[in-house]
Design goal:
59 residues, mainly alpha, 88% helix, elongated, SecE_sf, transmembrane helix, protein transport
Amino acid sequence: MEKLITYFKLSKIELRKVIFPLKEQVRNAYIMVFIVVTVISLFLALVDWIMSSIVSIFV
């Protein structure tokens, strides 16, 4: 039981060291992820369309 109590005490100490991101930082990160995913999706859609067009020419 003493090990469990020590574990929770150490966990509490470590949690005080954590620096949580600000609301603005989270929002900026969300926007950047959204933009990157959108650009990659559009690129892959373009590549898919081009490859489909090439295959349909030969078939």
